Amino acid sequence: MTLQYGFFKAHVTSAPTMRSKHLPEQHETQYHMHVTLQAQDSQPWDCAINVGTDDADDLLRYRLVQNYSHPICATLKAAASGYTDLTGKDALPALDFLRSDVLTGTGDWQNSDVMNDGVLGSTTTFQPVASLEAAFDKAVATKADVYAFGRTYTGGDAGIHDIHMNQGSTGSHFLNEGNDDTDHNDVWQDGAILINFPDGTWTAYFTAFTQQIVPTDGAGNPVAGGHEINDSDPGSLARQLEAV
Q1: Were 165 and a residue from 35, 52, 132, 208 both cysteine, which residue would form a disulfide, CB within 3.0 to 4.6 Å?
Q2: CA 125 from centroid of its chain's CA atoms
Q3: Against a cut of 0.90, is the pTM above it?
Q4: Confidence class of residue 23 from pLDDT cuts 50, 70 and 90?
């Protein structure tokens, strides 16, 4: 079953706040930055952005890119305010870090700091929290357009989450077997944050977890003999198709 996926185009109307969520099945606590997104003719949406974990063996791997440039930016700028559904799409602007060139020229992955509840305070030096917080503060001050790619909340709440790579996760609770509605693996459903400032510059935030294994199959599940995602993996499956 394909999960509902797309992007929400809006302005940020709240200062970033931090929350934690313990995941017993993964034996770790994940940390999220929350902001409120307000689009024209829409109720406010909550946006939950992964920024790290307390598990040194499953860190967040991120690329926080200033002056991001890609043809997708023109597509997004022309999009209507609010939610754009990309469920079932298999091409940009739906995101797939392995099957598209959306991460071309964005540098190397950086590992997040190992986090603890100190990140929940009003100020922090944890990365990428500090840098992302500064980007959102600037977005609020300048009324920048923010594009949040991910999966929509279920249960009637207005919001978007799973703002990270959504394929290659191991464990039975993540396997995409085509018959459930959990936050399972899938292709062309990767999450990200892009910010278009009034001066025309773009900031982009892309993430994956070190325990996510690539390459992935057509369902987004890791293939046998795979490896943790590294700097050469983004776009690798697209390059393979081009070489055929």
Answers
A1: 208
A2: 21
A3: yes
A4: confident
